[in-house]
From TrEMBL, chain A:
Any one GO BP annotation for this protein: ribosomal large subunit biogenesis
Segments of this protein annotated with the region Disordered: 231-263, 299-322
Biological source species: Rynchops niger (Black skimmer)
PANTHER family referenced in this protein's UniProt entry, alphabetically: RIBOSOME BIOGENESIS REGULATORY PROTEIN (PTHR17602), RIBOSOME BIOGENESIS REGULATORY PROTEIN HOMOLOG (PTHR17602:SF4)
Signal peptide bounds: none
Keyword Nucleus: yes
Entry protein name: Ribosome biogenesis regulatory protein
Positions with biased composition (Basic residues): 308-322
Domain of life: Eukaryota
Job of this protein: Involved in ribosomal large subunit assembly.
From TrEMBL, chain B:
UniProt keyword terms in alphabetical order: Nucleus
Leader sequence residues: none
Biased amino acid composition, Basic residues: 277-286
One Gene Ontology cellular component: nucleolus
Cellular compartment(s): Nucleus, Nucleolus
Brix domain ranges (all copies): 31-234
Name under which the protein is recorded: Ribosome production factor 2 homolog
Gene name linked to the record: Rpf2
Predominant location: nucleus
Disordered as annotated region, ranges: 270-305
GO biological process, one term: ribosomal large subunit assembly
High-level lineage: Eukaryota, Metazoa, Chordata, Craniata, Vertebrata
Keyword Nucleus: yes
Length: 322, 305
């Protein structure tokens, strides 16, 4: 009897030992995904050998890792699903491993014209019942749709002539026409709302009007121009810097080219032609070398910066072909 | 564009439900995978695709016909398929002399290719070849990644993320402990990746935690990494972005300290200390004689007539 007891105890001790696993580095667990990450470098010597030995080693490694993962899963709070007799169910935490989304998160759509108006006026949505009591049929019918409460509109055999209407007019045709117009108007408004939402989604963000440290010369001049024009008289009486040219506000703002009239200012034309002849005849070059060289250098720098920026965005665009 | 989809309004409720399933949501659907054969897919690669389809049912579609495309050169046909079948994961198999038994595993973001990794299959043991009992279709597998390469190397890290995404299955709030039957084990060693699938047998042990025995089952692949096409860092970061609504809300007036104690904060109004409800000590209760002495001449008792 003693031998039997000793053998049983040995077996039990072995089983208890065999639930624990020794590892150099602890595994990382993500129980929401049923995931375990083992950072230990695998025993290369055993695994590089022949195929059957490798399979056995891989299986042993897998067994150890699975044992650790299952141990972690058994630690989770568990309950019996579906009453006392149901299966034991563990509640999993949220998955921790960050995986990319399938589609970008939904953008909130801008409110439609009606929604804006309703918000302004404080109008709230009344909940309407879906069934209405029909007196003629003496039962509950739908508000609209198949077998609606007011009777089938196609079978309406009477159309009253309203007061002040032309007695010769066809009332049925008028009703049909008005329905068509209503439908068309609703459809137009729906498409307009969609277009507004679409435009709002792809709007180009305006250059920041408050000063940041890194604005270029063009951005700064644009900002200065916007600031000048945002007065009540659209910038006509704003003081200018000594050398700044005064420009009248043009509706096109420089989109169309303007030419002088052919036979206008004869004196100006004469002086212009004489100046041209003088510059052509003189020995000194008209070109100011230093200014030209500086301009060229600046242009080259700008091009290099643009190319670098474009290359970086190109590499980004490789992952997203349009 | 979703706006263009909405221009044509769906005429039936079924069509509306179909479109609603496909539009971007806060909490997303389980990712579907499409398994495509290339123009020159051989028997091995076809068997691999069929086995992975069996593992990933019902969240996968297996295309029967061969499609003559090269994913690394031209991604438009992949994107078209993804849009048609609303799948964001794909596995493309092909075979040629330069790249024998080729598998391209990849994922999409917003119907454009995000990451693609080309793997070569060196050895393949299919589901049919292993004569053991299989676990039921659609079990959520346990995933284990062994090897330090999966952390050290950037490409291996993306491959790990891709494989988790691929084999993860639906996200569930709770799981039946006895139903943990399937485990996929990936080992990275010497530039090769060994993928093995085992069926888990839970044996009795002395304590609550069962002892695990593994039985070889299912597809096992020896893979070697070939080309990769990974998304740039900013695009990857954009795809990882979760909307703010999904963040767990922080409860106010609750704080935790280093030792794990939870502290709560209660804000009280001003209290009238004279009317405070304290413990009643019977011995200190005012007796009627003392009470009448305090009150003075006024006797509260009415005289009986």
């Amino acid at each position: 009897v003693e031998e039997v007891l000793a053998a049983a105890e040995e077996q039990e001790a072995e089983k208890r030992r065999s639930v624990t696993v020794e590892k150099e580095l602890e595994l990382e667990f993500d129980l929401g995904n049923l995931l375990a990450l083992d950072r230990n470098p695998p025993a290369a010597a055993g695994l590089r050998g022949a195929a059957p030995g490798r399979e056995a080693k891989l299986r042993a490694l897998a067994r150890d890792n699975t044992q650790l993962l299952v141990a972690q899963l058994w630690e989770l709070p568990a309950e019996r699903a579906g009453g006392a007799g149901g299966p034991l169910v563990a509640r999993l935490p949220e998955p921790a491993f960050r995986l990319p989304r399938e589609k970008p998160p939904p953008r909130p759509r801008p409110p439609t014209r009606w929604e804006q108006f309703a918000r302004l006026k404080g109008i709230r949505r009344r909940k309407r019942t879906s069934l209405v009591w029909d007196e003629e049929a003496k039962e509950w019918r739908r508000r609209w749709g198949y077998r609606r409460a007011g009777g089938d509109p196609a079978r309406a055999w009477l159309a009253e002539v309203p007061e002040g209407a032309d007695p010769e007019e066809d009332q049925f045709a008028r009703l049909r026409r008005e329905k068509r117009e209503r439908v068309a108007r609703n459809e137009l408004n729906r498409l307009r709302n969609l277009a507004r939402a679409h435009r709002a989604g792809t709007a180009i963000p305006a250059a920041p009007l408050h000063p940041t440290g890194h604005q270029s010369r063009e951005e700064l001049s644009h900002v200065a121009r916007v600031a000048r024009v945002s007065t009540a008289s659209l910038g006509r009486f704003q003081p200018r810097l000594p050398k700044e040219p005064s420009e009248p506000p043009s509706r096109n703002a420089g989109k169309k080219r303007r030419f002088e009239p052919l036979l206008g200012n004869l004196a100006a034309e004469r002086s212009r032609q004489l100046e041209l002849l003088r510059d052509m005849g003189s020995k000194k070059p008209v070109l100011d070398i230093t200014r030209a060289v500086n301009k060229q250098l600046r242009q080259e720098e700008a091009e290099a910066a643009a190319a670098k920026g474009k290359k970086q965005s190109q590499r980004g665009k490789r992952g997203r072909r349009q | 564009m979703d706006a263009l989809d909405r221009v044509v309004k769906p005429k039936t409720k079924r069509a509306k439900r179909f479109l609603e399933k496909r539009e971007p949501k806060l909490k997303e659907n389980t990712k579907n995978a499409m398994l495509i054969k290339g123009g020159n897919a051989n028997l091995t690669v076809t068997e691999v695709l069929k086995d992975i389809y069996a593992v990933k049912k019902p969240f996968a579609v297996l295309y029967k016909k061969k499609n003559i495309t090269r994913p690394f050169e031209d991604q438009t046909s992949l994107e078209f398929f993804s849009k048609k079948s609303d799948c964001s994961l794909f596995l493309f198999g092909s075979h040629n002399k330069k790249r024998p038994n080729n598998l391209i595993i990849g994922r999409m973001f917003d119907y454009h290719v995000l990451d693609m990794i080309e793997l070569g299959v060196e050895k393949f043991v299919s589901l049919k070849d292993v004569k053991n009992s299989k676990c039921p279709e659609g079990t959520k597998p346990m995933l284990i990644f062994a090897g330090d390469m999966f952390d050290v190397n950037e490409e291996y890290r993306r491959l790990k993320s891709l494989l988790i995404d691929f084999f993860r299955g639906p996200s569930v709030p709770s799981i039946r402990l006895a139903g943990l039957e399937y485990v996929l084990h990936f080992t990275a060693l010497d530039g090769k990746i060994y993928m093995r699938s085992y069926k888990v047998l839970l044996k009795k042990s002395g304590c609550k935690i069962p002892r695990i025995e593994l039985e070889e089952m299912g597809p096992s692949l020896d893979l070697v990494m070939r080309r990769t096409h990974l998304a740039s860092d900013d695009l990857y970061k954009l795809s990882l972005k979760q909307p703010k609504a999904l963040k767990p809300k922080k409860k106010k007036n609750i704080s935790h300290d280093v030792f794990g104690t939870t502290y709560g904060r209660i804000h009280m109004q001003k209290q009238d200390l004279s009317k405070l409800q304290t413990r009643k000590m019977k011995g200190l209760k005012k007796r009627p004689a003392e009470k009448s002495a305090e009150d003075g001449g006024v006797s509260p008792k009415k005289s009986k007539s």
